[in-house]
Amino acid sequence: MFSKKKKNDNETTNMENNAEAQVTNEETTAAQNAAAEQGGAESGAEETNTEATPELSVEEKLKQENAALNDKYLRLFAEFDNYKRRTQKERIELLQTAGKDVIVSLLTILDDFDRANKAAETAVEVGPIKEGVQLVHNKLMSVLGQKGLKVMESINTPFDTDLHEAITKVPAPSEELKGKVIDELEKGYTLNEKVIRFAKVVVGS
């Protein structure tokens, strides 16, 4: 009797376990189906989003390229404008200080002139004054010569429009002086072989 009861109890337990396993399997299957449906919905949403972003048209691409080129042009223009302003400033500063070394070298000659003026106030003879002026003049020409200044030699040279400015023409005293410089009213100068002042001359005709 006890054996039969025990057997019945075992059968009941097995039935309960089978029922629980079946419920678990059904729950697992339902969860898998729900996950699959959710994944399908997400995939469909992604496809929808992909389809919702159309590719740019040719016109829109050209507009974007045009905007990029305009931005690049504006940047280059701004850089060039800054470069131009900087070089202009440097050029002005150079022009303002270019003659500084020449002026400094002439200061000693100004000192010589001051001394000559003081000496002339009490001088009795003209000879020493003339000699002093000549010395100052020679010193001045020496300093300017070191800076590249040269005096043109015009007298008895052929008239040259690149060097001379004819003030007037006069009959030449001889055939050899026709077309040549007879007299010089104002000397011409070159600085480093470049004419900075034309000589004003009288030409024989």
Automatic annotation (TrEMBL):
Q: Name one GO molecular function term.
A: adenyl-nucleotide exchange factor activity
Where does this protein reside within or beyond the cell? Cytoplasm
Q: Supply the InterPro entries for this chain.
A: GrpE (IPR000740), GrpE_CC (IPR013805), GrpE_head (IPR009012)
Q: From what superkingdom does this record's organism come?
A: Bacteria
Q: Which GO terms describe its biological process?
A: protein folding
Q: What is its main location?
A: cytoplasm
| Low complexity bias locations | 11-40
Does Chaperone show up as a keyword for this record? yes
Q: Where is this region: Disordered?
A: 1-56
Q: Which terms in the GO cellular component ontology are assigned?
A: cytoplasm
Q: Give a single Pfam family match.
A: GrpE
**Record's keyword terms, sorted:** Chaperone, Cytoplasm, Stress response
- Function (record text): Participates actively in the response to hyperosmotic and heat shock by preventing the aggregation of stress-denatured proteins, in association with DnaK and GrpE. It is the nucleotide exchange factor for DnaK and may function as a thermosensor. Unfolded proteins bind initially to DnaJ; upon interaction with the DnaJ-bound protein, DnaK hydrolyzes its bound ATP, resulting in the formation of a stable complex. GrpE releases ADP from DnaK; ATP binding to DnaK triggers the release of the substrate protein, thus completing the reaction cycle.
Q: How does it assemble?
A: Homodimer.
Q: Entry's HAMAP family? A: GrpE
> Would you identify the family this protein belongs to, as annotated?
Belongs to the GrpE family.
Q: What is this protein called?
A: Protein GrpE
The taxonomic lineage of its organism, from the top, reads: Bacteria, Pseudomonadati, Bacteroidota, Sphingobacteriia, Sphingobacteriales
Which gene underlies this protein?
A: grpE
